[in-house]
Structures are given as structure tokens and as C-alpha cells.
Fold:
Amino acid sequence: MELFIEYVKCFVVGGLICVIGQVILDRTKLTTGQIMIIFLLAGAFLQAIGVYQSIVDFAGAGATVPISGFGYALAKGGMEEVGGSGLMGAFAGGIKATAPGITAAIVFGYLVALCSNPKSKPFK
Structure:
């Protein structure tokens, strides 16, 4: 039962993040790229002020998988590395913290491309 509750928390928080994005998309003239940047910066900002870690502790993957979780990881890595490496750690820490996720996206994207039969779309 405890595992089920964890799944529910993850689903609800991740779903709420997606609902917020959909409402922004429906009610504004922002593009999907602009909304992704807003979410990324929001995740980084919320981590910088100490709020996003609480959300991650509560929801786990429901908070770390969306793009706001990527901003959180960048900010968290940068903040941790600044203590040891100074200003350059702010840049290097974010890269170190997100490298596994970026690598996984590249590898799995490549594997899916090998297994699929992509067709190019004509330009309009």
C-alpha cells in the first residue's frame, strides 16, 4: 500500500505540472518552446529559494522528470559545486548533475531511431 501511495503522489504532482503547462498553452500566445523555458527557469528559481527540494522529497519522479526538474538539477548541481570550486563551479556543477540524464536521452533517442522507420515531412 505504501508503494501505491508513492505512485499516486508522483502521478498527482507530475500531472499538476502538466496541467499548469496546458493551461498556459491554452490561455496565452506563448509557444511550447517558450513555456518549456519558463518551466526550466521556474525549477531553477524554486530550487534557488529552497522550495523545489521539498516538492522532490514529496513526489520523487513526479517532480524530477518534467522539464522543471531539469532546471532544479542544474541549479542544485551549480549550488553544490560553488562551495568547492568557486564561480566556475556554478557552471560545471550543473553540467555534472545533468550529464546522466542528457546521456540517457541521446542513447535512447539513438536506439529508437535505429528501430524505427522515420519519414521526413514535406515543408509547407
Q: What stands out?
A: Helices lie at 2-27, 32-48, 52-59, 61-64, 67-85, 87-115. DSSP finds six helices and no strands in the chain.
